[in-house]
Design a protein that fits this description.
The structure is a homodimer of 567-residue chains. Chain A is of the alpha/beta class. Chain A folds into four domains: 6-123 and 258-327, FAD/NAD(P)-binding domain (3-Layer(bba) Sandwich), CATH 3.50.50; 139-255, FAD/NAD(P)-binding domain (3-Layer(bba) Sandwich), CATH 3.50.50; 347-460, FAD/NAD-linked reductase, C-terminal dimerisation domain (Enolase-like, domain 1, 2-Layer Sandwich), CATH 3.30.390.30; 466-565, Rhodanese-like domain (Oxidized Rhodanese, domain 1, 3-Layer(aba) Sandwich), CATH 3.40.250.10. Chain A has 15 helices and 32 strands. The first copy, chain A, has a five-stranded parallel β-sheet. In chain A, helix 1 packs parallel to helix 8. The longest helix of chain A has 15 residues, at 313-327. The radius of gyration of chain A is 27 Å and the shape is globular. Chain A starts with 5 loop residues before the first strand and ends with a strand. The interface between A and B is large, with 112 and 110 residues. Chains A, B: InterPro entries: FAD-bd_OxRdtase, FAD/NAD-bd_sf, FAD/NAD-binding_dom, FAD/NAD-linked_Rdtase_dimer_sf, Pyr_nucl-diS_OxRdtase_dimer, Rhodanese-like_dom, Rhodanese-like_dom_sf.
């Protein structure tokens, strides 16, 4: 490695500054330059919704280190010894002569910057749907600090006005809460039949949908935006879908992002099947002197081993470190990602990783699934809140393929255990013996994820036949004949119940003495509030010689359809 | 397996009922009996401090399932088909004839109960220190619901009165908070120089000590109780230590528990080196028809592979399941425990797993340690709170030996990742690539535990020499000559600083231009608030040719000694 190696980083948000900083720490002699087309560097892009909501007062806070040091041009130069060329646009990269041809946006001057190693950290761009009206005043996207400042200034003035959010993904959900905090009236329009697109199975997304309703926010699912309409001064006034028209003083479009690959294409670097820049495990592109990381680069899915596009600030930071290592002679390799994501909507948290049940089925996996609804800490504490864990497990390898967790309680902690388990290469059953941290304010004695792993083990071993709520609903919709056996107490039944002629109430404590009410030739599907008693009932009836008994995963709590609720 | 196998469980709190219930689920034909000397079954012993505090109103709540079903004798009999013999004392077990000789405490009648398989789940008993006065009125222990009811009745009447807690372990800490919530005036006396005994290293325990002080609770460390004094009516009036006397209207003794092994000893079962009942991985005792689990049984330490005594409700439940499996013909094996523990004291949470630095040193491990103090979520959110992660890593295998986490923020989530990593059998460096769930309300973009793993990797690779705060303090106490270089801003320095003549302030941004103030021949130890800038300074100076530079782990935040704080 030459002692005065010239490293150039294109892109100054997450991966780029991370790589540049670590290179200088590992090799203080390296000459490191960051080229950024905007003004700002190293800001927390994921924090933009919290700046819009007003929770973060100044955008400077998004650029600070945890101890409050603002990472501006001065900081990078003075503290880190990194040269910053912001307001600078790269026009062309001459790979043969290893030279970058750029232009200063402010002065118009041309700059030539030679490199030994080049890092592309050029990020992603928001997708613009191919409809009329996306360029009207009041139609916004959210990717840069500038975008957020524009929205916040407008939304300050728009208090009480109407906003339409197009797209119910992670950004759409976070901005819904931000707009609500700013006192706006919001409608969310999502093309698919659930929020977060393919990231959630329907019975998990259901609980997020309920939270929109609980906060009085219309969520229009399976509705396609046809057109954004403006007035004669070019200001947005409404959004037309295939089902109606919604008045709008402001529109936010959040229908996903795509990798920035224009420059890489011009340089004739290889583009992967996902449309992002192709890199190897060392994050090297098809040119061995050029690395790519963050939102512009492809990842490997840790579960399937296949390429995936999963732009995420946390991954971008990991990429920065890996690239720096490799440039400084350390053979660091990315192990890929699981597609983990988490967000909150008011009082509901939702997290996911790996494959959904649908993704797994589409990929041909033979799976079992688990639904475990239970309080997130000792149930006798008032702070205890529900979380619902869904696991998707490979029946053959017994490995966890994916997890989804939703509810008002602490979903994040259990998600981290699922993610750690996937990374371990072990089976889902291993989780059952993790010595997790137990005390009543933090978890039940058997942590929710341990119970979920135990249920998975039971299912893998064939103890207790069960149906998912979706399967039971399909049986009902097919007019199948079975006893839908509710084993809760009469009081619980009065308060909330599934209304269907198949439903029969026999409290678990009375089941042994009520067998005459249950014909042996009929199929029986038992359930309770969370299907702990439902499982007991299945075991009891099967043990008594009933030939066709199962329980319904997750009980009434996980029934993602209409149900009767008293009062 | 005979179809009407007779299974007898001795002990009805956690492991016993768990095993009994699962046996009935796996083998409904089995005849399962639980013998319990007390009245109550299957209660959450760990919830007792929260019943004392009044957070849990009725002790029945401690006996309920998460859906509110009370697990009383009726429940076990009627719902689970398990026979309960409570108020029943086992006198003798005839292993040869497989028969239990018991006595009904209420009627005085003798009972003979034959068994095919026997499960000992007889728990632990609180230790009674060998001092005078432990039998006075007002001197309490805390292990059973009866203990808790007695304390709560007294403490209700004792509002504003004085309590002395002997023992600063997990129970002592939880009861401190409970007593405070009941309006009592508390003094805590601990024989060792820190709370939680051997479970924490001193620089972590320091932050718990500060929380006692912040809540106005005298914590008397390194103080030995000599005697509990009573008045002439046999009521407690004070506690005498080797350093003073403390008036007391009530005393709680919480100096640990020991396994109940009397019965096992009488049965001539093998007792392990820890003093608990010796079991194999299947939790079988030295008699293959007798199993033992929960607080009476020995565990294997997952890190050292050696026996350890680690009574914990979470482990007891795991044991119950494993024993049930084995009795029903499934070869389930315990993988051991890490000694994980967690508790909260007012606004501080503290968790630990595996080996402390001291334990690891005593066992001869060559370790590196990490101290990472940082906010538990995106620093720009007002909800962000500090957590300090300490990792102890085996320098040779790069495996995590232990973790301790303390602070007002979310320590539990990161502890679960550490525990999962230890269980995975991989190295600490693996954590750096866990695709943990990131969004600003849940974590920084680089989660705290990922940053800690990255620091560990740097240290394992020899990047950046560092000292722990304890090592720096030892250098100071040895009157060593070095520059203790604070690279924070003058404002931060005014607000809080370490006061020592070696301390020299040069803000990081001015370091490059201030090298003339730093003689190359002197040793330099750099630090900042959390040692992010301290590490940068070390890199910068080392890169500039300074031969003897290091940084101090964790910065001012982790300095566990007196420091100047303005105002």
């Amino acid at each position: 490695m030459p002692s005065k190696q010239k490293i150039v980083v294109i892109g100054g948000v997450a991966c780029g500054p991370k790589a540049a900083s670590r290179i200088k720490r590992l090799n203080p002699d390296a000459e490191v330059t960051i080229i950024e087309k905007g003004e700002l560097l190293s800001y927390a892009g994921c924090g933009l919704p919290f700046y819009i909501s007003g929770e973060v007062e100044s955008h400077n806070e998004l650029m600070a280190t945890p101890t409050g040091v603002v990472r501006d041009t001065f900081f990078f130069h003075k503290v880190k010894g990194i040269e910053i060329k912001n307001h600078t646009l790269v026009k062309r990269v001459d790979r043969k002569n290893k030279c970058i041809d750029a232009i200063s946006i402010l002065s118009g001057a041309n700059v030539e910057i030679p490199y030994d190693k080049l890092i592309l950290a050029v990020g992603s761009k928001t997708q613009v749907p191919p409809i009329e009206g996306t360029d009207l005043n009041g139609v916004n996207f959210l990717q840069t600090v500038e975008d957020a400042r524009k929205i916040r200034n407008e939304s300050g003035a728009l208090k009480g006005k109407k906003a339409v959010i197009i797209g119910g993904g992670l950004i759409g959900i976070e901005v819904t809460e931000a707009f609500k905090k700013q006192g706006m009236e919001i409608t969310v329009i999502e093309m698919l039949d659930k929020v977060m697109g393919q990231l959630l199975d329907p019975e998990i997304a259901y609980h997020v949908h309920k939270e929109f309703a609980a906060n009085g926010i219309p969520l229009k699912l399976s509705e396609r935006v046809l057109k954004i309409n403006g007035d004669d001064r070019g200001n947005v006034k409404s959004v037309t879908t295939d089902k109606g028209e919604y008045p709008a003083d402001m529109v936010l479009i959040s229908v996903g992002v795509r990798p920035n690959i224009q420059l890489a294409q011009n340089m004739e670097l290889e583009i992967g099947e996902t449309g992002a820049i192709k890199v190897d495990a060392n994050l090297r592109t098809s040119d061995p002197d050029i690395y790519a990381g963050g939102d512009c680069a492809e990842n490997i899915n840790r579960i399937t081993g296949k390429p995936m596009y999963a732009p995420m600030g946390s991954t971008a930071n990991k990429h920065g470190r890996i690239i720096a290592d490799n440039i400084c002679g350390i053979d660091s390799r990315s192990k890929g990602v699981c597609g983990t994501a988490i967000c909150k909507l008011f009082n509901v948290n939702v997290a996911r990783t790996g494959l959904t049940e649908k993704m797994a089925a589409d990929l041909g996996y033979d799976t079992i699934t688990v639904l475990n609804p239970s309080p997130d800490r000792a149930h006798f504490l008032k702070e205890a809140k529900l979380i619902i864990i869904k696991l998707v497990v490979d029946r053959n390898t017994k490995k966890l393929l994916g997890a989804q967790i939703v509810g008002p309680g602490d979903v994040a902690k259990r998600m981290e255990v699922a993610v750690s388990n996937i990374a371990s290469g072990g089976t889902v059953i291993d989780i059952a013996q993790y010595d997790l941290a137990y005390a009543p304010p933090f978890s039940p004695a058997m942590d929710n994820i341990i119970t979920a792993a135990n249920i998975a083990e039971n299912k893998l071993n064939g103890f207790g036949k069960s149906y998912t709520p979706m399967e039971v609903k399909a049986k009902i919709d097919n007019n199948e004949d079975f006893i839908f056996l509710d084993v809760r107490s009469p009081q619980e039944f009065e308060e909330m119940r599934i209304e269907d002629p198949r439903v029969k109430l026999i409290p678990l404590g009375k089941l042994r003495e009520s067998l005459d009410q249950l014909p042996k030739e009929k199929e029986i599907v038992a359930f309770c509030k969370i299907s702990l008693r439902g499982y007991e009932a299945e075991r009891l009836l099967t043990g008594t010689g009933y030939p066709n008994v199962s329980y319904m995963d997750g009980g009434v709590v996980c029934w993602p359809f209409e149900k009767f609720v008293a009062g």
